[in-house]
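# nightly structure sweep
# worker-07 picked up a monomer target from the shared queue
# config: single-sequence mode, recycle default, output format = structure tokens
# input follows
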Amino acid sequence: MQNIKNDLFQVEMDQDGIAIMTIDQLNNPTNLFSTHFIQEFIQVAQEAIADKDVKGMIITSGRSMFMPGADLRELRSMGNNPEEILEGILRVHQQFRSIETGGKPFVAAINGTAMGGGLELCLVCHHRIVLNNIKIKLGFPESKVGLLPGGGGTVKAPYLMGIQNGLMYLLQGKEVRPPQALKDGLVDDLAENQEELIAKAKDWILKNPNPVQPWDNKKHKIPGGGIWSPTGVQTLVGAAGNVTKMTHGNYPAQQYILSVVHDGLQVKVDRALEIEARFFTKLLGSKEAANMIRTGFMEMQKAKKGVARPKTEPKYEIKKLGILGAGMMGAGIAYVSAKAGMEVILKDVSIENAEKGKSYSSKLLDKAISRKRSTVEKKQALLSRITATDESKTMAGCDLVIEAVFEDPALKDRVTKETEAVLGKDKIYASNTSTIPITLLAKSSERPENFIGIHFFSPVDKMPLVEIIVGEKTGDKAIAAAVDYTVAIGKIPIVVNDSRGFYTSRCFGTFVNEGMFLLEEGVPAAMIENIAKKKGMPVGPLAVHDEVTLTLSKYVIESNPDSDKNPDTQRSYKIIMDLIAKGRTAKKDGAGFYDYPAGGKKKLWKGLVDMFNPNVDTLNETIIAKRIMHRQAIEAYRCLEEGCLRSVADGDLGSVLGWGFPIYTGGALSYIDFVGIQQFVADCDAFTQQFGERFAVPDSLRTLADTGKSVHDYS
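# output follows
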């Protein structure tokens, strides 16, 4: 066999007759499990099998990642011919099987992250050795984009790891580091460096000239027991119940994974692979997968790379960051910024308060150390980058200052003026406000073109979204700086135009308000909460209202000068004030819509029944579900039409990442298409007549429906 070098990989023969394939896809940002690569790989692998002088082949990578997955761009554009897609997948399975049964050893020398299709390529190999590097991850993330591993992974994983462990990986998209992968049976060996990795791979090939895959070995026993063993039966029955409970039927991928594992383990592997291929093809044509790939991967990747920044502006580097206010938000911002390598000045009214804010980072790091995800040295290095202070003059020299004080315009006015007095004229000033218009706050600034909103979500260290708000006078430099900063700290930015409540807070408010209105109309609280969760919201509207506090909602309404002009706002205000009058204020206070007993589980407050008398005429699950979901979507569309949102993609991402709108729908705007745009408009027309003008359909949405277009056609 001759040496090969092309734009996908190079193959070199060593003196022992072992071919080493080094994957290095020059035309892609990373190695991808694409149709072009698969075809070329199979051709070379079959040539190696046919060549009597080749003893075996090693597959490794020339990139920092081995192969992080399939080319989702390709999957998304495969078309709508399921028969053609199925035929292609079955052909690949057959060709992979010819490699597995070809009589020559193939070893995956995994020297970087191998996920999804990349890991399935490794499963075609008879032996898997991985570099013992903490940066390397292995797993099957397909379920996170509405798919299942379609390159053999769903069939093969249980043979290697057992049914229970295999399902953990497949259903949850579990990702593990090399030691855990070895312990679970996903890989066969570890190597400490590249030289040892290749040496171990060569040694295995020379010692195992006639390899047999576990699924071809009649003596192989599935770890933990087969499909009809007590463990197997118990695992699958339990998994079926848990999947139904967790997904409520909204995510077909999980149901199909169970079917492939259940059916596939009862037949020969070739038939099992056909079952997998049929379910994969079905999923690929589903609207859930299309939505999850588009919003959950394509648009998210673009946002992570800063697609929203003005292209004409040079990169704005933040070496030194100032934070005003060391409360929960300010402390969280300090942590993620210092973690990204920035020098952070954390200011509060007293050194004690500022130090308390800094201690938040210390607690997070202690937890990470206890879980072996960090070290004492890394903790000390990060904390050394945070300076606690009570002096405004320390903001001098900062490239960016983020104000995170209490939502009081007068207080924000004062700290803005104090800070601008020492901040460089060309530097950027941002407010972390969640509701107050940026244009209003910018009136306190002498440089409104450098004033912008950077709205974080709590807890900052966990929540991925950052909503960047552009005021009337905000300039492109400030927008670019805010996006660059957000990307630098590993968050996902969306850019919206100014309005009260901006996008996320405004739409989130409709979720909690509709929950309260349903309660007031006589729908039992438990029914409201359960239906919301059944549709895919992470928690019910009443529970999440307790989380954000009823007192905050009260303040937001009272601080809005237009509140008295909106009957729905006044209606929600009355409900909130009635509860506050009874001492029901928030989860943190132990009492809201729920009771929160110390050391016990929360329970809906029994007094809700007396406050809001149940009404059997309201108990229509379909209408309740649509009111909860449609209300959020119609508000999101209004934000788009009014220009608060700059794109449908930002609206979808903001809803999924900001307040937990279910990803299977694609997001709050794509939800309109998910329901069917004509059906959505018809529903909202009926709701407008029955429940009020908050469901009124904007003319532009009605036009899209009348012309058979998509919400993505809005311009």
